[in-house]
Amino acid sequence: MLEIGFYLKKFISFFVEPFGLGLTLIFIGIFFLYKQKQSRAKLFLLLGSFIFLLFSYPPFSNFLVANLENQYQKYDYKENVEYIHVLGNGHNTDKTQPISSQISDAGVKRVLEGIIIYKKIPNSKLIFTGFKGDTDTSIAQMNSKLAMALGVRGEDIITNDEAKDTKEEAIFTKSILNKQAFVLVTSATHMPRAMMLFKSLGMNPIAAPTNFYKRDMDTYLKAPNIHAFNVSVIAMHEYIGILWAKIKSFLQ
To answer: In terms of DSSP H, where are the helices of 121-183?
Structure first.
């Protein structure tokens, strides 16, 4: 049942995030065009095109991510805590690629930030979480391999291969730490939702955001581009996730 709920959430989110929403509107427009309902076809085609243009506009995408990333500043490396939890991200298991390429860009930055903090705290331990997805190796194991390649001792690493989302990652770490303070490493866009979920379980995370997307915008005269659209997709995924978590909390 939990497996079905996980994939159902992914399916629904596709249609409310920018790409899925824009594509759906355009397909509806094409359908009305086929039915020779010109006014409706024009409306939906324009709406779909507007969605793609709006979310591809750099100042707008920057506004979306900045509202998320400004909530937690970079870690100050002054806390003396024992555990550092690095949340999982995307990966592949193509053996023709080095480990640094098998892990997503965001994932590599999360691991690097976790290692930097680990190196500054004597006797600390790293926690890596994340499931296999459609591969044969979990992201927790991939991150662990990268960490050991960069000098982290195997005995200082704790992994969980089953966690499919942030809440399951939080539940695992709570089983180890309960209310003990720890450093939480994840992408800056994801940090507000992650902190909200961990705190909702009575935990005490200390935010260490990385992989920032926000930029200083010196002008609004920017042409739409695919990078800005991708950043918008990342931001909207987080806004939808925060909204969904709040709805579930209200209904419980």
So the answer is: 139-149, 166-177
**251 pLDDT higher than 90:** no
In the DSSP assignment, the letter for residue 103 is B
Residue 221 has pLDDT above 60, yes or no: yes
Do 30 and 116 belong to one domain? no
3-state secondary structure 48-75: HHHHHHHHCCHHHHHHHHHHHHCCCCCC
Q: What are phi and psi of 190, to 5 degrees?
A: -85, -15
Q: Which two tokens stand for residue 243?
A: 């909204």
Per-residue confidence (pLDDT) for residue 198, from 0 to 100: 97
Strand order in the sheet with 125-129: 157-160, 125-129, 83-86, 181-187, 204-210
Confidence at residue 9, expressed as pLDDT on a 0 to 100 scale:
66
CA distance 60 to 96: 38
- Token look-up 């298991």 returns 93
Q: Which position has the token pair 């909204």?
A: 243
Q: Range of 247's domain?
A: 2-69+226-251
pLDDT in tens, 122-137: 999 999 999 998 898 9
Q: What is the count of structural domains for the chain?
A: 2
